[in-house]
Amino acid sequence: MPSLEQTCGCGGSRELSAPRLRGDTPDKAGLDPEELRHLVQEVHDLTLGERPWAAGTVVVAGRGPVIAVEEAAGWAVRYAKYDPETDRGIQLPKRSRVPMTVGTPFDIASLTKLFTSVAAVQQIERGTLGIDARVGAYLPEFRAAARHDITIRELLTHTSGLRPELPLYDCADDTARMALLREEAPIGVPGTYTYSDLNMLLLQYVLERLTGRPLDVLIHEGITRPLGMTSTDFGPSPGAAATEDQRKPWAKVNRGMLRGVVHDENAWALGGVAGHAGLFSTGRDLAIFCRTLLAGGSYGPARILGPDFVELLLTPPGLGFAIDQPWFMGELAGRGAAGHTGFTGTSVVLDPGTDTFLVLLANTVHPVRRRADNTPRATAATRLAHAVLGAPPPDPQRP
To answer: Which residue, 70, 148, 237, 358, is most buried by CB atoms nearer than 10 A?
Structure first.
């Protein structure tokens, strides 16, 4: 039986400690070994050939507190540069490549939004932030947002009407960037879904104004440190998987081959810490994040959110999280599965209905960005869904 321990993070009361993740067999997780064997093979196959889906991949999957799959394939660094004439990556000699490992950090891109959202819901739980409060109440100098009565809920649900992004990377300095953001008015109908990085940027500035602390500190102190996510932080991350040979005209700025520095051009222009992108993490750390939410906000002795506020976060349409999206969740979608994808090739799915989680990390933009093919993400999630159907649920009394 779990022992009583003092909680960390948001909680201050003594309560039952939530089991930590452990590696074990599919049987111990209540998952079908054959389906997971296919999952692992298919993830390896994604890295093969002259034009693979990704140079390298990491997959972590499990059920309850058990990690049943933790596997790496391919290369963290495979290419020296991209050749636009042949539309191919120039491969490094094998001796100079860097193999992918399960501990390789990835630029998780828009998965950063999930951490910003949790940080916001933590403030909602504390009563310091109103979910239906106006952004202008916290940031009166953001005149366009104030004039259009954009709310915190609209930022979290991507229903503010703000456009997907602004070219902050083209601004001369931070003063010009902030001026552009402060005058940006909605172009869509408020209440209508339009996915936008600007929502999480505004939310970042609300949180920073409210708490007096920068976003990286809020996420570290409120989420990653109490959960023991020691490999999750904003960059630089020198050992990370490489991303793109970032050059115009296919990219928005000229930065060359990127490794360990944020891929997103706006996050880079903002110094690497942004509400929509900038975090680096590993498969194991993201599995801890998923497990914490599946366990109602607790992990080990730490509690970062109460169960009611995890429910608020994951109730459709989701606060920051996408809910039941088959295009990347496959057959896990349909029962309240939640998750997100990142432009660099990252994704997470957690399914409260079956107590399962899937972390699929890939550097699909190495050596160059391309039109997203989400079929491998959906296929992996469907394999996990079938693994649940093909096995009995885990026995909570079984060690």
So the answer is: 358
